[in-house]
Amino acid sequence: MDDVLESGRCAQLLKAIADPERLRIVQCLRSGARNVSEIADSLELEIANASHHLGVLRQSGFVVADKQGRFVVYSLNPKIFVAKPSGKTPNRIELGCCRIELP
Q: In this predicted model, what pLDDT tens digit does every residue of 43-72 receive, in sequence order?
């Protein structure tokens, strides 16, 4: 049987995002790019914890990082987080193996 869903890859992606703090970070970044301090403050997290979760999200491709001066600014990967043509806020996660609609 062909593995058209790429089950191993899909499971790794789902595992990477299946954490309450990471999902909160995704929600935070839906409104725009932020640095780790802004994310930590917004979600009332320790900077080290926010940085750890951002590292997991970055390594799995959910977020992208852009060095701006002395800060690293994180944003949602537009190849995975897709907005409707009529909107700017991402409302869908496209993993290839599955699609998740966001409220």
A: 999 999 999 999 999 999 999 999 999 999
- Please give the CATH number for the structural domain made up of 7-95: 1.10.10.10
**Sign of CA pseudo-dihedral 32, 73, 49, 38:** negative
> What's CA 40's distance to the chain center, in Å?
15
Q: How far is CA 47 from CA 1, 58, 73, 82, in A?
A: 45, 16, 14, 28
Q: What is the pLDDT of residues 84-97, one digit of tens each?
A: 777 778 888 888 88
Rounded CA-CA distance 56/99 in Å is 20
Tokens at 70, concatenated:
């002395």
